[in-house]
Amino acid sequence: MSDSNERKFSSAWLFFLLNFVWTWAFWIPAAFLSRDGSTPLITALHFIGGVGPMLAALVLLYSVKDKQVRRDFWRRVFDIKRIKGRWYLVIFLTYPLLTLLPAALDILMNGAGIRPELASQFIQQPLMILPVTIFFLFFGPIPEELGWRGYALDRLQTTRTALVSSLILGAFWASWHLPLFFIKGTYHNNLGVGTTAFYLFLIQPIIGSILYTWVYNNTNRSILSAILFHFMGNYLGELFELSERAEILQLMITVLFVVIVVFIWG
């Protein structure tokens, strides 16, 4: 994509504004309504709010008259050739390692380590695997990564380093989830507000964003790579539940991994 085409994009800050306004306009009412129990309306508000990153990106993308910009965007979504073989290994093995290693360390310290959550249900009902997998791909990774990495990260990196861009994006990404902690029945609400799990959740997107940028930049700005990487993180988190100590160990190992990535790749 040419520099002239890059400049025609709206800024990341406008993306963040549109994204938050859309998402929180649905999630905040859902939080208030959920005090009286879960209803189909709350579920609908939850799902509609979750497409905020995608909608914000598409609104800004199609405000650009140059068709080449839009073609480049969708090419980066569907072009599997952008991702070279070894980066598929990075995409599909990073989160399993970041899950199993802290669990193993916790077990060595006489901890619980890891508990199969969704994985145990799959053993009992294997027919659930396909629909659940599709659900976790389309709710979360696709609508979020079309915006976070597919749109905002490029805008940030035009004037900032990859590291600084990652930290800024990670901070917005983490704070975007805040209303979910007040919607009863959500994963985030079950973590609680002010708990260790709450703070770990808010820190993880900031640190993890560096890994996303690492994968994204090294796959020729492939949005597909970010979608698959996000999917692996979410899916492993649903398949297995780490003990609290294992989650702390996971964060420490992730930070160490990030330091190595930044040191080697700059």
Provide an overview of this structure.
This protein has 266 residues and is mainly α. The chain has helices spanning 3-7, 12-33, 40-49, 52-61, 67-78, 85-108, 118-124, 129-138, 141-145, 148-157, 162-176, 187-191, 196-217, 223-239, 244-265, and strands at 114-116, 240-242. The protein has a two-stranded antiparallel ribbon. The chain starts with a helix and ends with a helix.
Task: Give the secondary structure arrangement, pairings included.
Elements: H1 3-7, H2 12-33, H3 40-49, H4 52-61, H5 67-78, H6 85-108, E1 114-116, H7 118-124, H8 129-138, H9 141-145, H10 148-157, H11 162-176, H12 187-191, H13 196-217, H14 223-239, E2 240-242, H15 244-265
Antiparallel strand pairs: 1-2
Give the key terms.
266 residues, mainly alpha, 15 helices, 2 strands, 74% helix, 2% strand
* Fraction in beta strands: under 5%
Strand order of the largest sheet: 1-2
Main beta-sheet annotation: 2 strands, antiparallel
- The quaternary state of the protein chains shown equals single chain
Percent of residues in helices: over 70%
SSE arrangement, N to C: HHHHHHEHHHHHHHHEH
Total helical elements: 15
* Unreliable sequence segments: 1-9
The rounded Rg comes to 19 Å
Q: What is the rounded distance between the termini? A: 23 Å
Tell how many strands the DSSP assignment holds.
2
Structural class: mainly alpha
